[in-house]
Amino acid sequence: MSALSKLALALSVVFMFSLLPFNSSVVQAADSDITTSDDEEKFKERLSELADFFVSEGLDINERLQDSRFELYEDIGDRFRNSAERRTVSLDEYKGMLGFADKKSKISGFIEKNKAQLEKAEDEYGIPRYVIAAIIGIESDYGRNIGSHNPFNAYASMYAVDYRADFAKAQLKELILFVERNNIDVYDLKSSYAGAMTFAQFIPYSLNKWFVGDDIFDMDNNIMSVGNYLAYFKNITGSVDRAVFRYNPSELYTSAVMALAAEAEAML
User: Fold this and answer.
1) In the chain, at which end, N or C, are there fewer CB atoms within 10 A of the end residue's CB?
2) Contact 213, 220 (CB under 8 A)
3) Residue closest to 97 by CA, chosen among 108, 89, 109
4) Model confidence over 133-178: pLDDT tens digits?
5) CA torsion sign, 194 to 113 to 216 to 234?
6) Mapping DSSP to helix (H, G, I), strand (E, B) and coil, where does residue 189 land?
7) Is position 108 within any domain?
8) 71 and 49 co-located in one domain
9) Tell me: the pLDDT tens digits for 178-187?
10) Do the beta carbons of residue 151 and residue 186 sit within 8 Å?
11) Is residue 30 part of a domain?
12) Which distant-in-sequence residues (6+ apart) come within 8 Å of 182 by Cβ?
């Protein structure tokens, strides 16, 4: 075959190949695999770094990280960034996302059922029973919803994806201290995606500092604990509503709690 014939054959092959359909999904899938692999490697490195930190603190989390129940919440940063407090622009919209009307319909029954303990908390801590009830209503629907996540997974995931990593590490340490002191399997606990637990939705630091009683699933203990927490910050801030703001630093949240408390007081 002459050199000219070889060149013509090569050009025809190139032309025929250019007519073949381009499957972008194959390329995208390959890119996705590379990204996933890179992310997984980064997560492993971060978790190894976290485990080393705990060893330096005299605590070992390796067994928990290797437990079959360990789960990495890769989207946890987005969960925080897309929280109701950040997405809503008005109090009415925020109330709708909280199910405010439903919580309003339930609060009088909750207060009547727990009247004695709410009065005890009010007398001891100087926090209106209606505010305590409103917080428990908004936080856990009066104990009906304590979350579907696991706090260990939540905080380890926050560290792995490098979202509020210092906060996550500190809370994870508080969590380990809490479960070891109380002889609890950390994977038996349920929390919000933010790692908040119990009917009062306390993060680990708050559990260790302000929770009253041993049983975190006892409603009487949760009522007293909310009162204890708010009393501490009322003493610092000078008012109940500013103490509520410390519970969740959102003006929308504070307004919703105080509005629900006012509705309860008006009904009772």
Assistant:
1) N
2) yes
3) 89
4) 999 999 999 999 999 999 999 999 999 999 999 999 999 999 999 9
5) positive
6) coil
7) yes
8) yes
9) 999 999 999 9
10) yes
11) no
12) 214
Tell whether 56 and 165 lie within a shared domain. Answer: yes
Cα distances (Å, whole numbers) of residue 250 to 91, 95, 125, 186, 254 = 11, 13, 23, 29, 6
- Residue 254, helix vs strand vs coil: helix
**Looking at the DSSP assignment, which residues form a beta bridge with residue 149?**
191
Report long-range pairs for 168-173 (Cβ below 8 Å, ≥24 apart). Answer: 169/50, 169/53, 170/205, 171/195, 171/203, 171/204, 171/205, 172/50, 172/54, 172/61, 172/204, 173/54, 173/57, 173/59
Considering the domain architecture, whether residues 118 and 153 belong to the same structural domain is answered as no
Instruction: Please give the structure tokens belonging to residue 140.
Output: 């856990």
Pair (223, 268) in one structural domain: yes
For residue 78, what are the CA distances in angstroms to 120, 177, 186? Answer: 40, 28, 24
Q: Indicate whether 62 belongs to any domain.
A: yes
Q: What is the pTM of this model?
A: 0.84
Residues counted in the chain: 268
